[in-house]
Each structure stands twice: as C-alpha cells, then as structure tokens.
C-alpha cells in the first residue's frame, strides 16, 4: 500500500482495529525528528512533499508525506513524530525511509503529531 492508499484507508476508517499483541507495537522504533527540508513532489499521485528529518543518533531520513495542508515554511524546523524502522519504500521513484505520524480530520487532512518543545531529535517515543 503506498502513502495515498494508506491515507485513503485511514481517513475513511472510523472502526477501531482489532486487538493486537503488544510486541507488535513495541517492535516499532518511534522517535522525535526535526524537519530539515521540504520539497514539492510533483511525481506523486496525490499532492505531497519530500521531507528530510534529523532523528539524532538514528540519522537523517527522508519520506514522502501528504501534508500539503501545511506550507513548507510551517514544516521547516518543526519537531515531528516518526516511525523509523518500517523499511524503505519506493514512491514515484523516491525512497521513503520513515512514516511521519499524524491524525486525519473529517476531510482527510493530516494534522501532524508533535512532541513537547523540550523534546530533541532522536528521543524515543514509548
């Protein structure tokens, strides 16, 4: 499932997912990142940006994200929450290396999750 299919599924699904083993959740590496760059991504099927973020000791990673309800200036230097160990995925010739987390409103717009201002790149979310 690419980012656009995932976005459609998440924004349309209001039914809670079934119970899962906590080990599945705790196997994900969720960390604080700081957005370094935001670029237009015209090759994406749905409006998206190419974003790079600094995850501290975990390194600088890139992703494609359908967060165009934010301007690039609003995103630059923003602290975000990302899942960094889901593997790499090719999206329209671009390698996405992490999943930026947010919630969806009724219109399907993404509202990014943000840590407290004292958080720093690389801090673990648990």
UniProtKB/TrEMBL annotation:
This is tRNA-binding domain-containing protein. Residues 24-126 form the TRNA-binding domain. Keywords: RNA-binding, tRNA-binding. The keyword tRNA-binding applies. It comes from Streptomyces spororaveus. Pfam families: tRNA_bind. The lineage of its organism: Bacteria, Bacillati, Actinomycetota, Actinomycetes, Kitasatosporales. InterPro entries: NA-bd_OB-fold, tRNA-bd_dom, Tyrosine-tRNA_ligase_regulator. Gene3D superfamilies: Nucleic acid-binding proteins. PROSITE patterns: TRBD (PS50886). Residues 1-25 are annotated as: Disordered. Coiled coil: none annotated. PANTHER family: TRNA-AMINOACYLATION COFACTOR ARC1 FAMILY MEMBER (PTHR11586), TRNA-BINDING DOMAIN-CONTAINING PROTEIN (PTHR11586:SF37).
């Amino acid at each position: 499932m690419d980012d656009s299919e995932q976005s459609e599924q998440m924004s349309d699904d209001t039914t809670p997912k079934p119970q899962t083993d906590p080990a599945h959740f705790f196997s994900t590496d969720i960390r604080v990142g700081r957005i370094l760059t935001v670029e237009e991504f015209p090759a994406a099927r749905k409006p998206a940006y190419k974003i790079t973020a600094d995850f501290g000791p975990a390194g600088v990673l890139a992703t494609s994200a359908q967060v165009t309800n934010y301007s690039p200036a609003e995103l630059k230097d923003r602290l975000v929450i990302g899942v960094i160990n889901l593997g790499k995925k090719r999206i329209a010739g671009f390698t996405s290396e992490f999943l930026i987390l947010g919630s969806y409103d009724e219109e399907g717009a993404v509202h990014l999750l943000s840590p407290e201002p004292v958080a720093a790149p690389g801090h673990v979310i648990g």
